[in-house]
Amino acid sequence: AMALCLKQVFNKDKTFRPRKKFEPGTQRFELYKKAQASLKSGLDLKAVVQLPPGESINDWIAVHVVDFFNRINLIYGTMSEFCTERSCPIMSGGLKYEYRWQDDCKYKKPTKLSAPQYMCMLMDWIEMLINNEDIFPTRIGVPFPKQFQQVCTKILTRLFRVFVHVYIHHFDSIISMGAEAHVNTCYKHFYYFIREFSLIDHRELEPLVRM
C-alpha cells in the first residue's frame, strides 16, 4: 500500500525535492549502506542506532540526519494534500503547542505560519544546510565544523515537529492511506536515534508522550 501511495505522490503535478544522495565510494556511502542493512535485517531499532565500533560519531549523525530528512520529507509529501492553509492555518501540535518559524534570513523573529508554509520553509532550510559543504563536508579529510552537532540538533528538533503535526492532525489520513506501519517505524527509528545521542531537548518530545 505504501509503495502505491508513494507512486501516487510522484505522479501528481507536484515537485518534490530531489533526495540528497551519498556519493558511492565515500565513507558516508559505506556507513549509509551499513545503517540500511542493519535496518532491513529486522534488528531491534535500539541496537540499529548505536554507533558502530570504530566509526566517527559526526559521520554517523550526518548520515542519519540526511536519511531522516529524505524519509520525513517523503512522509509529509504523502500527507500534503490533507494539510492545507484551510485545514491547518497554524503550524501546531494539538491545542497546546504552536510552532513559529525563524530562520535569521527572511524571518528574523519567530513568525506564525500555516502548517504547509512552515513545512515548505523547513524543508528548504534543511536542504540548504545539508548541501552546505562548510556544515556537512563531503570531501575526505575535511573536518566537521565545531557547531556541527548544534546544527543537527536544530534540524532534528524541527523534523520532530513534522511528526508531531502529522500524528496529531493527520493520523486518520495516515491510516486511510495504509501508511501507518511505515510512519510508525520511521518515527521509532528517529526517536531511538535522538535518544541514543541526546540530540533533542526532552521538553520538545512532550507533545507525543501520550501517543
Q: Which properties best describe this structure?
A:
211 residues; mainly alpha; Butyryl-CoA Dehydrogenase, subunit A, domain 3; two-stranded antiparallel ribbon; 7 helices; disordered N terminus; metal-binding; kinase activity; kinase; MOB_kinase_act_sf; MOB_kinase_act_fam
Structure explained in plain terms:
With 211 residues, this protein is mainly α. The chain is built from seven helices and two strands. It has a two-stranded antiparallel sheet. β1 and β2 (97-98) form a beta hairpin.
What's the short version?
By secondary structure, the protein is an all-alpha fold. Helices cover 54% and strands 2% of the residues. The protein contains seven helices and two strands; from the N terminus they run ααααββααα.
